[in-house]
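RECORD TYPE: inverse folding
INPUT: structure tokens
STRUCTURE:
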């Protein structure tokens, strides 16, 4: 892929993220969820059960505690699977199965890898999103986390394909996810608890898309900072 070639031709650009970098990303996401717990809960109170922020904070706190207690074997795939399994077992509502699936499928794609190249990250993200789409039966426009994740994935692939550095590709990915998140406001929900509201779900930002934007923003901030 052109993006990788461009990165390889410029030694000053980091070509991959190591196991410890992935760990830092997960901790950063946990911190972002903690910082935005109340706003996520308020968004969910408008169109859902009102527990997305609380549930995600509980899950990510459990993830951090789990990672603190175990000695990593430097396998990025195994790390991501641990995150996924922990979220499935600790997060209530739809968030647990969906975020759990996202991380489990990402972990499967990254299985056995000690570090992730830009293409590895793009592949893991694509596998994770495919898992979420299959599990939740959601498509873009349904007013779900998919509305942030899919634009983020597509922007990442386009940026790498166009020769962008990994840091720039990550920033473009996060920006596209943010726009996708904002674009959920006028949508009428077609999946999940919000769909019960019908037309009344319009005018509210989707909480799942919001936390998904935080996920990709955390990656851009964590991995793009040293390029």
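DESIGNED SEQUENCE:
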């Amino acid at each position: 892929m052109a993006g990788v070639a461009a990165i390889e031709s410029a030694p000053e650009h980091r070509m991959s993220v190591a196991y410890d970098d992935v760990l830092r990303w997960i901790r950063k996401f946990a911190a972002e969820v903690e910082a935005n717990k109340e706003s996520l809960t308020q968004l969910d109170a408008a169109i859902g059960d009102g527990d997305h922020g609380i549930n995600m904070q509980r899950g990510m706190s459990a993830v951090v505690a789990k990672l603190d207690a175990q000695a990593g074997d430097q396998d990025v795939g195994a790390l991501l699977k641990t995150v996924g399994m922990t979220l499935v077992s600790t997060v209530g509502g739809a968030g647990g199965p969906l975020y759990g699936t996202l991380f489990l499928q990402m972990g499967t794609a990254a299985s056995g890898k000690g570090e992730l190249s830009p293409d590895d990250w793009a592949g893991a993200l694509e596998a994770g999103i495919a898992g979420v789409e299959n599990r939740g039966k959601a498509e873009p426009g349904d007013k779900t986390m998919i509305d942030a994740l899919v634009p983020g994935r597509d922007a990442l692939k386009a940026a790498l394909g166009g020769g962008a550095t990994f840091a720039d590709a990550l920033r473009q990915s996060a920006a596209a996810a943010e726009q996708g998140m904002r674009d959920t406001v006028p949508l009428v929900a077609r999946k999940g608890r919000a769909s019960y509201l019908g037309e009344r779900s319009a005018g509210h930002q989707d909480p799942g898309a919001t936390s998904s934007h935080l996920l990709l923003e955390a990656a851009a901030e964590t991995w793009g900072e040293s390029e």
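NOTES: The chain has one domain: 17-223.
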